[in-house]
Amino acid sequence: MNSLYTRISARVPENFTNPTKSFKKHVWLSVFGLLFFIGLYLALTIWFGLLAYNLVVDANSFNGHFVNYLLAIGFGFLSVFMAKSLFFLNKREDNPIYRSINEKEEPLLFDYLYKLADEAGAPRPHKVFLSDRVNASVSYDISLVNLLFPSKKNLEIGLGLVNVLNLGEFKAVLAHEFGHFAQRSMLLGRYVYVAQQIASRIVGKRDGFDTFLAGLSRIDLRIAWIGWILSILVWSIRSLIETCFSIVVVAERALSREMEFQADLVAVSLTGSDALIHALYKLQIADQAYANSFDCLNEELSEKKAVKDMYILQTNYIHKMAKTLDDVNYGKSPKVPQMSPEENRIFTSNKYNPPQMWATHPADIDRENNAKQTYIYEPIDDKSSWELFSNPVSYREDMTARLIKTANIETEFVSNEEVIKKQDNEYFNWTFLDSKYHSIFFGRFPFLNFNVPEELFQANVSSQSVKDELNTLYPKKLAQK
Predict the structure, then answer these.
(1) Does the residue 106 lie in any domain?
(2) Where is the domain boundary, 271, 294, 314?
(3) Where does a domain end: 221, 244, 271?
(4) Count of the separate structural domains present in the chain
(5) Can you give the pTM of this predicted structure?
């Protein structure tokens, strides 16, 4: 087995990836917010339980007073309502689309992952899952046991990401995720995640308890009032939990921003300042192309046809968009300038949005400034990321089949050539998308501004040639704008 892994050749400053003062401050704010929420939640649960117990004890002292028993049942109900949300389990492999792979199946990939994790000073992934998405992420198997004992971290690798990034950019994205693996503050994230699951179950989930209350509120008026009162109390608890958890969310999001910057620096320390930023740029395009390929997949399903490999549609979309935009560099890795590369910026304003996999992350321009604040030059490996996989076509077709299976429709396969032709005809075979218009009509149908067809021909055309007229109307600078 020939390893594809290479270590960074540039010199990285000492303590480059150490947490900043701002990072540590937000860790403490998150801790205090989380402790407040957990303390309040447990206090309410125990308090309702104690009230129920004391009322039963007092009822026995007073020869079983009916009102005491009634109130005890009500408070006991509220205590159980609170406590039931403490018991849950979330496992990644429950998702039928995700595919678990191991070292025996993919020795080259796992050799790459293990060496990268070791160099990042991060624990090696417990499990590795392939998904259909443009994504790479850390996940846990979470239960209450994991509040006392650390849960092992799993790694998701999305094939929509692998299909677009070169090996150097893919390494940078993985290094970012391993930066999270190594963060001690991820322990806090686990508690926040558990608290979020509890809060969401209390606030959003409707189950047998709600059905019981609804039924109780609809029967005889002499009993229905009990259901009304309990319903009001349950609503009040939900509102209180939602309000209090918002404090945890605000603190955790502020910390999350700091964690992302620090994980980016881990990626920079292992791949240089450019690879991760190039990945950010290309992942926006990958998202658009993936969404289009997903649309094509659904259109075929509506005709009871099945696409074999949706990722060829993702690739084809990028190629066709390059022609539509008259931009030969569209979807390709940006060039690193030889002069003052540390001053070069791909993202020039806050209007650029993070790709879907990093939608909750800081703005791209902020991440680029963070990555290039201390510039580290490292050549980017331009080999295909698919070289890490033993049989790329098999994985792409299997993931496509898993998606199609969720539709529960009997289908027949169509060839890759046929589905590409249909994608071209549906989305790109339009005269107004010709490259000579420099994409000015992309997403804007030119005939929508006219009430009747005759208005299209009422414009006054000058005596100069049509070619010169077009050059005046659609100059090359429009493409940049």
Answers:
(1) no
(2) 271
(3) 271
(4) 3
(5) 0.77
Considering the domain architecture, whether residues 294 and 333 belong to the same structural domain is answered as yes
- For strands 127-131 and 153-158, give the pairing: parallel
Q: Are residues 256 and 301 in the same domain?
A: no
Query: Residue 308 in contact with residue 400, Cβ under 8 Å?
Result: yes
Q: Is 187 helix (H, G, I), strand (E, B) or coil?
A: helix
- Between CA 472 and CA 464 the distance in angstroms is 11
User: Which conformational region is residue 237 in: left (phi greater than 0), alpha (psi within -120 to 50 degrees), or beta?
Assistant: alpha
Confidence at 294, pLDDT banded by 50, 70, 90: very high
**CA atoms of 228 and 217, how far apart (whole Å):** 6
Residues 16-55 have pLDDT tens digits of 888 778 777 777 777 777 778 778 888 888 888 888 888 7
Helix H or strand E segment including 277: helix 275-302
Q: What is the pLDDT of residues 278-287, one digit of tens each?
A: 999 999 999 9
Q: 110-142: buried (b, 16+ CB within 10 Å) or exposed (e) per residue?
A: bbbbebbbebbebebbebbbbbbbbbbbbbbbb
Residues 300 and 383 in one domain: yes
Residue (of 43, 73, 36) closest to 237 by Cα position: 43
Beta bridge partners, 27, equal none
- Residues 267 and 296 reside in one and the same domain: no
Q: Helices 416-427 and 275-302 sit at what angle, rounded to 10 degrees? A: 100
279 within 8 A of 169, measured Cβ to Cβ: yes
What confidence tier does 321 reach under pLDDT thresholds 50, 70, 90? Answer: very high
> For 326, which DSSP code?
T
* Residue 41 belongs to domain spanning: 17-86+184-271
Which helix (H) or strand (E) covers residue 234, if one does?
helix 221-271
Number of Cβ within a 10 Å radius of residue 389: 21
**How far is C-alpha 310 from the chain's CA centre?**
20
Around Cβ 467, how many Cβ atoms within 10 Å?
9
- The verdict on 285 and 262 lying in the same domain is no
Q: Which amino acid is at 331?
A: G
Residue type, 386: W
Q: Is residue 21 part of a domain?
A: yes
Res 143 pLDDT > 80:
no
> Which regions of 318-473 does DSSP assign to beta strands (E)?
412-414
Do residues 339 and 471 both lie within one domain?
no
Q: Is residue 323 situated within a structural domain?
A: yes
Residues 398 and 309 in one domain: yes
